Amino acid sequence: MVEIITAEPEKFWEPIPGSLVSARAIELDGPWGHVFGPLDLDIDEGGVTVIAAQAGAARTALLMTLCGRMRLSGGSLTVLGHTDRPTKVFAHSAIACLNELDDVSPSVTVRDLVTEQLRWESPWYKMVSRVRDDGVERMCGEVFGDVPLPALNAFVDDLPELQQLLLRIAVANTRRPPLLVVGRLDKVADDDERLTLLKRLVALGERQSVITADVNPLPSDTGVRAVVDLHGVLGAGDVGIMTEGR
């Protein structure tokens, strides 16, 4: 049975130097069958690493595993210096743009989403008022860069796709942990918007290690540090586990 880790992350951490990911013979089985592996994988710390593989349950599960949200069935996985300790990795990472974890209800506004995240992160005894435009800017400005910020009272589901994804990244990444995992890069239909999203991840990669995934070839000169080609190694996986992007 697949186990999804749901423990609340710790509030503070120290960066851990060295290799970001070292995986040996890792594999995952679920209640409906085999998901991925055995698989060896090495990712260096810093910048943006793109896992090149077809979209599907296996790729989604691998991304979730790399940031401590799922437990492996076999093999050994070291992330941020923690070997086979997913709860520790959970505390030192953030994940965004995977509908299985951070899908947003159509009735939620930008103000609601940002306010709820601030309240979740604040001590229980502290009152947090509903945010204004400056609150959205503080939370989202670094992630959005030159991309216009969403309107305070706009419904998230009505925003352009690029703004929706950047907003989800900003909300997930408020603590700026050492590792940020972002899914759905190849779900952006517009080529220019997909490139803009990738450039924003590259900007974040100057201060964090960022892992994302794409089935498409990357344009040249994107600033991506590395591409790990898992085509033919990482299949679609068992669709009974999860379905990426739905």
Tell me what the structure shows.
The chain is globular, with a radius of gyration of 17 Å. It has one domain (21-229): P-loop containing nucleotide triphosphate hydrolases (Rossmann fold, 3-Layer(aba) Sandwich). The protein has helices spanning 57-66, 86-91, 99-102, 110-121, 133-144, 161-172, 191-204; strands spanning 21-30, 33-43, 47-52, 74-79, 82-83, 93-96, 179-182, 209-214, 226-229. The strands form two sheets. Strands 6-7-8-3-9 form a five-stranded parallel beta sheet, with helices on both faces. Strands 2-1-4-5 form a four-stranded antiparallel beta sheet. Helix 4 (110-121) packs across helix 5. The protein is α/β, with parallel strands linked by helices. 28% of the residues lie in helices and 22% in strands.
Helix tally? 7
**Rg, please?**
17 Å
Globally, the shape reads: globular
**Model regions low in confidence, pLDDT < 50 over at least 5 residues:** 1-16, 239-246
Share of residues in strands: 15-25%
Task: State the major sheet.
Answer: 5 strands, parallel
State the strand order across the main sheet: 6-7-8-3-9
